[in-house]
């Protein structure tokens, strides 16, 4: 199996997105989301719950008096914002934004203690109680996010200040935790620092950080449980409620078993995928086959048995958690935005372990559907929960669905998701390619218009990718070799064959001529000596497909979803009336596609034949139940991309639609 | 509109059930449920949560040392048991049981204070805090249940001791609550005493109790809210959680509005229907037209928009509550047993207000399905929640369905339901007939084999009813007149035309000859001068029907239920395999019926053509989603009566089944 060097090895500026679809998003992040979130972090968004994040740092730095505000992990919101800024500055220099970020970093430095410790909650509210409640208090989690910010900001600007701050904190953590006598043998209640320490190692080359990450991963789940012992030491209390609480549920944060013995995804889904991400990093960097096998088992369980068609994960809001195999209710779903982002992180690390198209398929599914759909067109409103079926009145009046919002919200008291979206979208250029210099192979995982430069064993190669996805599936790659590349460059362009392409083998043309190729692990290998100016066309005509779910997924029985390329579609009340449950797709429906430039900023809509229960023919308005007689009448249905739902008036939405025939 | 005197006016022994189907149940209650529950009340059921009920009374009576145990309303379990015993003794004298009950009543007397106050929780655990937390503490609720027990025991045995105890307590309550200066202007957080005081009035003739009931009903929902003021006085605390709590949710116990302004059922469903029952009683006894109109509005809302086909009510376990119109999820349902019993109480009172078959239809629906289904064949296991769809693994592993049990439980920590079933089933003889002496009319609401005697204006009449429901729909009434009834007796036998009879007009035969009749409010009037020995046959041949739900009930869209006579059917995994979601009823299915003497104690099973998704034909076990292609293959389906579900190995169950055509 080919081992691939990390895409992290690519300097960030070496892939630049040049793509109509995605540029809209990166511009939205740059021009709207980042400034808006800065206002939010400073409690200046009217009508939104205050963040307190900056205020906490000012108090911790001694610049202001006051109480700590917000969640115990509030520091991480500033971290995620700074991380997004780092990515954004790498692609779009912006001195004004950089000045704001530099000032924020100065503030962070002022809030750091002599010994490197940095956490505004404990500095302001519970000094002396540091590291006494790893289960609840998110100290290492916040540290991890700030490390990720430090690396991104260093990569984006070349400025080391935050990196140095976080290395000092990492050194302090390393002195505090470990198996050596006198150290705490703990680990965080919310995994995050494990993947962040890998990034810190990759940015600094300091192996201490890699080993510390390994320690946290290997220690987790050891018996007797650190969390149970810590709970006893704390007097059985919790950060979250008054009084005493039961012994911690170890499945919740995946510390019920040593990680390498885990096979089934359980517990809080964000914690899980952040941990799996670090596990895959460590498996790659240390060649740990056992850890890799665990990653593969967990990947298979998550993506084959516990993932929604939108790439959402987490079937229950109780603990924001996985439930069990094939339990994927559409209306009481959780499918948290952050969990899909974490799944994307995990997928990317799996791609680095081994280039298999399956990983990129899932990455793309989560990106184009769950994650994109979490943000409004204006970049200022967000879903935390991403349902596949919404009845607004039920969200309002049935408490079991209160977590399912029918409209995107401004900002959340626990506002992990919006900055997570920002940092993903502003670093999307890192997800497009993988490169194996030794094999002279460039993997194109995602079809996103971009300019990229690669250092291969055979020399330097540049690729310009042109793509009109998600609306059109023709992708073109233009090869540039330095100085005209006399004699050409021998390398393989490995083009992903997407799982959504279902019409035989896609056509590959080089300079207009169809060429044969072999497929390895789901990638078409275009292996040749490429000349400067060569063009490779990868033809993936998009077709609308009706999709069925595995028969064990009870929630989707007798239903179909609509998918076109990577986009999942949905019905909205705005187009189809209500109740949507009264509609069914005709079994022999031939979907028609049409680009509607005026709808939701321009999108391909899918129209197809259906039937509707004729509500007016119901026997007696006062009768809830009556002898069955067929009441279906023809009704054309109109579907829009899922990621655009909820951008009009609040109404019903449904991804899975009944079929007129079982 | 005919006003009918209360069936309560009938002495209990005057209707005796003689019916193969129902005798099994009354015998089960007498021989198993009542003795078993006595063991439970005494904490002698191995493996079941202790009740503490008797122990609490012994401690309160000073006969034993110890702490209060169980719920704050634990006294009511003993009350409901005594009420059931009262009904049972009326029909089946049993000196041994009567001795046990008499001793328990002596114990209750010993636990009563000088001033009449009776509540073991406050006597043992919080003396001095009486009446300070009406919202949470169920004092008046427990009093109400003990009043009901007192009346039933008095009616069943002629013994006044408990009646006297409860009159003393009622007098104390009357001195404590009211609009007069110096009295508390409160009312109970859980309605129950309102209907109990009506019974106490009817048993004693003391109008004070009727007026006290009126006071509680009229005071409820007045602004400013007593519960909010009480919460402030209490320091914003709650009985249920530590620390302070938000202001009470007044919808929860229907105190958000004065009761006569209410139109939509909200909040805790048992509280609601107990209150509506008392409202209907008061409307009847006081001729209060405004109150009656409120009862009719609330009846219509509950039964037309918020009731499951099984007669279950309460769509969410959050607050065991109504949610909103047409929100009737089958799998996260609540449909508490006690709520359906309360609905039966309400229906009976509405029948007393006005004989409309609709009330009896709902009563029968709730009785034969939700309520009967709550108890196991052995009488020792009970459902609290009565789902219409069960996936046992989801009940175990998805916290949103933890309340939905796949198997009946032995006894509950909060065990309101089992004794409620016992008291209903042992008083079922009171639900069969209504009589209007002035109009010389006997209403047959339920078709249950029985012997009954009626005092009409025209004299005394006895009826022997023969019925083989729910398996066969031929019902016969035999008239007996005292002393051979020379000259006959002129009266109308008003026979309910059940809503489930859908084949035109049922045939009525008198002494073998078909006779014409007119229908009034859903009752066929067989009005004539009856002779001793006359026989009236009311022919209601049972046909299996596929039933559809109102198009606004989204959970049932594209699905049908199966009903035969009053019985709703369901599919079980034991007969049909799993997942049940993969099955669909053929749109043109012709149900076949067959009595299976060996199945579940003997029942009519329904077999019909269906289709099943061929799981083996699913493209790739590892793919959760794949392009749709029809995978249906023919599959015969077998349905069993819903009330019998869950009496075999734990498995899936579903009432609403997909149809093969929309």
UniProtKB/TrEMBL annotation, chains A, B:
Residues 545-658 form the Non-reducing end beta-L-arabinofuranosidase-like GH127 C-terminal domain. Keywords: Hydrolase. It comes from the Bacteria. GO terms for molecular function: hydrolase activity. GO terms for biological process: carbohydrate metabolic process. Residues 442-541 form the Non-reducing end beta-L-arabinofuranosidase-like GH127 middle domain. Pfam families: Beta-AFase-like_GH127_cat (PF07944), Glyco_hydro127C (PF20737), Glyco_hydro127M (PF20736). Residues 14-429 form the Non-reducing end beta-L-arabinofuranosidase-like GH127 catalytic domain. This is Glycoside hydrolase family 127 protein. It comes from Cohnella xylanilytica. The lineage of its organism: Bacteria, Bacillati, Bacillota, Bacilli, Bacillales.
């Amino acid at each position: 199996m080919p081992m691939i060097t990390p895409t992290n090895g690519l300097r960030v500026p070496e892939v630049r997105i040049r793509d109509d679809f995605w540029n809209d998003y990166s511009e939205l992040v740059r021009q709207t989301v980042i400034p808006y979130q800065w206002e939010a972090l400073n409690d200046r968004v009217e009508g939104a719950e205050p963040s307190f994040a900056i205020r906490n740092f000012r108090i911790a730095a001694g610049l202001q008096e006051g109480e700590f505000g917000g969640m115990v992990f509030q520091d991480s919101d500033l971290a995620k914002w700074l991380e997004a800024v780092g990515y954004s500055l790498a692609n779009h220099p912006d001195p004004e934004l950089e000045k704001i970020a530099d000032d924020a970093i100065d503030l962070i430095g002022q809030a750091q203690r002599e010994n490197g410790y940095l956490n505004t909650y404990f500095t302001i509210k519970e000094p002396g109680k540091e590291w006494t409640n790893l289960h609840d208090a998110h100290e290492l989690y916040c540290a991890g996010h700030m490390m990720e910010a430090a690396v991104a900001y260093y990569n984006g600007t070349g400025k080391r200040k935050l990196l140095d701050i976080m290395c000092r904190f990492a050194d302090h953590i390393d002195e505090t935790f470990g198996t050596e006598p006198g150290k705490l043998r703990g680990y965080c209640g919310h995994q995050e620092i494990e993947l962040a320490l890998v990034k810190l190692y990759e940015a600094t080359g300091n192996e201490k950080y890699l080993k510390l990450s390994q320690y946290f991963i290997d220690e987790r789940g050891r018996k007797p449980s650190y969390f149970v012992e810590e709970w006893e030491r704390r007097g059985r209390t919790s950060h979250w409620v008054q009084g005493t609480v039961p012994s911690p549920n170890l499945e919740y944060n995946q510390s019920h078993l040593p990680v390498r013995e885990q096979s089934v995804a359980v517990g809080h889904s964000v914690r899980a995928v952040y941990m799996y991400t670090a596990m895959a990093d460590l498996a790659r960097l240390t060649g740990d086959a056992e850890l890799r096998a665990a990653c593969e088992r967990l990947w298979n369980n998550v993506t084959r048995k516990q993932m929604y068609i939108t790439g959402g994960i987490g079937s229950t809001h109780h603990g924001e958690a996985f439930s069990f195999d094939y339990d994927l209710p559409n209306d009481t779903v959780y499918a948290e935005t952050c969990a899909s982002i974490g799944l994307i992180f995990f997928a990317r690390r799996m791609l680095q372990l081994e280039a298999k198209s399956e990983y990129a398929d899932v990455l793309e599914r989560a990106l184009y559907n769950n994650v994109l759909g979490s943000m409004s067109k204006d970049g200022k409103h967000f879903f935390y929960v991403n349902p596949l079926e919404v009845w607004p009145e039920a969200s309002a009046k049935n408490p079991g669905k209160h977590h399912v919002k029918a409209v995107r919200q401004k900002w959340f008291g626990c506002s992990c998701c919006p900055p997570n979206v920002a940092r993903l979208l502003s670093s999307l250029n890192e997800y497009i390619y993988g490169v194996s210099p030794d094999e002279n192979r460039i993997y194109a995982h995602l079809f996103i218009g971009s300019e990229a430069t690669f250092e291969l064993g055979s020399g330097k190669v540049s690729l310009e990718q042109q793509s009109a996805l998600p609306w059109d599936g023709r992708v073109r790659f233009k090869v540039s070799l330095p100085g005209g590349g006399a004699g050409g460059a021998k390398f393989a362009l490995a083009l992903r064959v997407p799982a959504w392409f279902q019409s035989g083998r896609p056509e590959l043309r080089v300079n207009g001529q169809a060429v044969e190729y072999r497929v390895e692990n789901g990638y078409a290998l275009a292996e040749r000596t490429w000349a400067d100016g060569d063009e490779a066309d990868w033809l993936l005509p998009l077709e609308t497909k009706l999709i069925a779910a595995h028969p064990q997924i009870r929630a989707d029985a007798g239903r179909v979803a609509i998918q076109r390329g990577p986009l999942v579609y949905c019905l909205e009340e705005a187009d189809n009336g209500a109740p949507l449950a009264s509609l069914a797709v005709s079994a022999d429906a031939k979907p028609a596609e049409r680009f509607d430039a005026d709808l939701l900023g321009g999108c391909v809509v899918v129209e197809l034949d259906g039937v509707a229960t004729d509500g007016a023919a119901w026997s007696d308005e006062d009768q809830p139940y009556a002898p069955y007689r067929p009441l279906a009448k023809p009704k054309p249905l109109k579907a829009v991309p899922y990621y655009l739902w909820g951008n009009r008036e609040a109404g019903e939405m449904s991804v899975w639609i009944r079929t007129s025939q079982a």
